[in-house]
Amino acid sequence: MCIIRSHVPEGRVENAAYSSYPYTLEPTLVFLPGLGADHRLFKYQTAAFPNSYAADWIDPLPNESLEQYAVRFAGAVRAKLEVRPTAPVVVCGLSLGGMAAPYVARELGASGCVLLASIRKPEEFPRWYYVYWLVARLCPLLLHTWLFIARLFIRFFLCFPWLVRCSVEPKIIRSFAETPLFRLAGLARMMFDWAYRRRLPEEKEAIIFDKPTLHIHGTDDWLLPIRRTNPDIYIKGGGHLLAITHSEEINEMITRFVDTVSACGPMSE
Question: Please, are residues 32 and 98 in contact by the beta-carbon 8 Å criterion?
Fold first, then answer.
């Protein structure tokens, strides 16, 4: 598989991710899944990195923003971790997890952040999802109905293993069908709110997370097309579920990135 490094503009904080730092303690990796996925999405990462934790989403509150949700979610993650005071933390998120990762990383006092098949800012979110945001806001029941039908289709799809011709494991697809409908709809509404709500100029310029950040994207990602974003590294032929379909390449990139940020500091209290 051909892995190509994209151009990183001068002055971006992400350039610091490639400077050299010595190890102090084994870093802790926290993995955040995508919409409708769970910890099973990162089975190859948790196997490769023993000191890691793949989180499951918690139920969002009504009208809760992604920023507010990240504070509660970081508290739930912190309660699950057993981190030594001087151990660095790196937060890795895929898709929706990547959108939430900078906020969670800030709350955890992380030393670095990795975005997989995700976007850095709302302006990079595809415009054609706008109709789903309107539905989520104007007619939540219709959004629930769409998601319910999608889950039924997936359950039917999984009844015929020969239909699953892609390299994605059925367990990963099944996680979408097993996610509670209330949680799925709440996370979708929260994601669309983050992407489409109007922001003041100072909000757009605000730095969410000022530590080294690495963005990896696949050239064939049709859910979050690469043409709308500017990743640091792109994987030729990679789709949306890079953690599964290109696990070896992703694990290697994460290892290199962690090597450079492992001395950036402990998780804050």
Answer: yes
Specify the CATH superfamily of domain 3-126+208-261. Answer: Alpha/Beta hydrolase fold, catalytic domain (3.40.50.1820)
Nearest to 232 by CA among 3, 5, 1, 2: 5
Share of residues in the chain with pLDDT > 90 (%)? 39
Q: Quick check: 189 and 143 in contact, CB under 8 A?
A: yes
CA 176 and chain centroid, separation: 15
pLDDT at 145: 74
Q: Is the pTM of this model over 0.85?
A: no
Tokens at 182, concatenated: 């209330």
Name residues of the chain where pLDDT drops below 50.
1-24, 165, 167, 265-269
